[in-house]
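The protein record quoted in full:
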Amino acid sequence: MAVYAEERGAPTLVEAVPAADPAPLGLAAFALTTFILSGHNATFIPDVIWVGLAMFYGGLTQLLAGMWEFRNRNVFGATAFSTYGGFWLSLGIFVVLIETTKLGGALSGPADVANALAWFLVGFAIFNFYMLLWSTRMNTAVFGVFLTLQITEVLLAIGFFLEAHGRANNGWVHAGGWMGIITAAVAWYTSAAGVVNGMSPAPVVPVGDPLWGRLPDFSRQRAPRQRRTEVTQ
């Protein structure tokens, strides 16, 4: 958008600046938070440290990235980042409520907590599944993020369902933790590629081609430029 503003008789051109790509930031926030929680599930990182990341980096930062993707007319990125920002915020506040208020007695014990977490993951696995299908129109790296995340969520859901039915330490949550670490690594790679490729006139780090079709032109455009208007004071 170009706007002419007249001040003291001299016209001034004000040019709107396109927004930068928020995807590398959203992916970095997702990767680090996933790595810390997955390290806990894999039993080599202590508990609780991930909660702060879930609230602010994985949660708030990803939510902001999703809002900026709306600005860039990227419906896929906006939906993905906003949803997983909500995922981390929801998971973080759930744990805080469990530890501080016991949810007013709504959950009777560890079995209820495990069952709740399992259904929570099932819901997000359903969302992630159709996003996985549509990620084939993005690039191979983004597809890899959603593929490894799908496996992670399914493994964790199975593990928590088994825990809810009395099979603690069944190994599925542990396996989900290690799969989550792989997910984080793929997301970090995709984030790093987005940063350096966004700083270069030509791609430097490969992310692969879409596996199916390609995005329509309007989905790759920035916000539409408005026609020039003249503003006088």
